[in-house]
Amino acid sequence: MNKRKKIKETVKRHIPQRHISSLRIMYRIVMETIYGIRRTGLINIAIIAAIAAILTIFGALFRTSFSLSSYVDNLGNTFEISVYLKQNAEPGYISQRIKEFNHVKKVSIKTKEQAWEEMNNNMDVSGMENPLPDTVHVTVDDPKNILIVCDNIKKLQGIESMNYAQEFAKKLQTITTVYNTVTIFVLIAVALLTIIIINCTIQLVIQSRKEEIEIMRLMGVSNWYIKIPLILQGAIYGFIGAIISLIPLNTVQNALLKLNEFLNVPNTEFAIQIVVFCIFVIAIFFSASGSLLSIKKHLQV
Fold first, then answer.
1. Is the pLDDT of residue 285 over 60?
2. What does the pLDDT read at residue 30?
3. Across the beta sheet with 159-163, what order do the strands follow?
4. What are 138-149's pLDDT values in tens digits?
5. Taking residues 54-76, what's their average pLDDT?
6. Residue 259: its pLDDT value, please?
7. What mean pLDDT value characterizes the chain?
8. Across the strands, what pairs with 265?
């Protein structure tokens, strides 16, 4: 026992008095935060469940948007412009000119002899003259740049016609834009709902501790000493809600990985890490913000 006291005295002598005071204040703030959560009672479960549900919806949409973008990019790499040449056109010269254009990723030539040989392998066309033209296949870097590349190709001499999946490219781009817009609106809804839920909760805590807080103010307690435990309480709700939301989000992640594997689409690197990071940042930030707004609204501190 005497040995323990000596250790305490030795530690106190080596720690500056101001640091001891700071540690005591931090300890009291933590205890006040825990006390506030305990006082809220079973309502804590409803609050955390609501936050977790909201974050799960956002996380699922956000993670799916990564897979959709990866799918669009991968599919965009398969979009080709088939350029059919006139009989007197030189395929090598035209392909070289096309390579000089912006947004052109790859250019390949299929001569009319090669096309005719492939047709002979698939069906019996012996005895017929080769009516097929030389073809230049052009792959663009992004589906939205197809029209730009096509306009440049049309200016070349020796071009008979062109063929590409214009409508499909436009629809795919529209779907991606709409989905990303929906995700942004969901993010805004997540922020608002989280702030509203936390605001109502902290209001209940303030009402239940109104007399106690009033006494603290009369005793000259710092405003931030009153505010910080309530802000921390909101942040803890957000943190726990974010952890719980990871359980259904993991199911979504596994389903998307299987779907990408089935569609032969590469997985977006660090997608799930980015989503998880955003969920925790959003949950903690907006939960703490909801607490702060509630304090400013219901307490003149």
1. yes
2. 80
3. 104-110, 135-140, 80-85, 159-163
4. 888 777 777 788
5. 79
6. 84
7. 77
8. none
Stated length of the chain:
301
Rounded distance between C-alpha atoms, residue 283 and residue 239, angstroms? 6
Residue type, 135: T
Which amino acid type is present at position 15? I
Give the pLDDT confidence score for residue 243 in this predicted structure.
94
CA atoms within 13 Å, Cβ hemisphere of 3 = 0
**Calpha distance 161→159 (Å, rounded):** 6
Look up residue 118 and give its two tokens: 């492939």
Token pair belonging to 232? 């921390």
Please answer whether residues 48 and 240 qualify as being in contact, where contact means their C-beta atoms are separated by less than 8 angstroms: yes
- Tell me, what's the pLDDT at 248? 93
Q: Is the backbone of residue 164 left (phi > 0), alpha (psi -120 to 50) or beta?
A: beta
Domain spanning 80-164, CATH architecture = 2-Layer Sandwich (3.30)
CB 237 within 8 A of CB 51: yes
CA distance 105 to 268: 21
Which of 160, 1, 18 has the alpha carbon at shortest distance from 82? Answer: 160
Domain layout of the chain by residue ranges: 24-74+171-298, 80-164
Tell me the sheet residues that pair with 100: none
Question: Would you state the pLDDT for residue 11?
Answer: 45
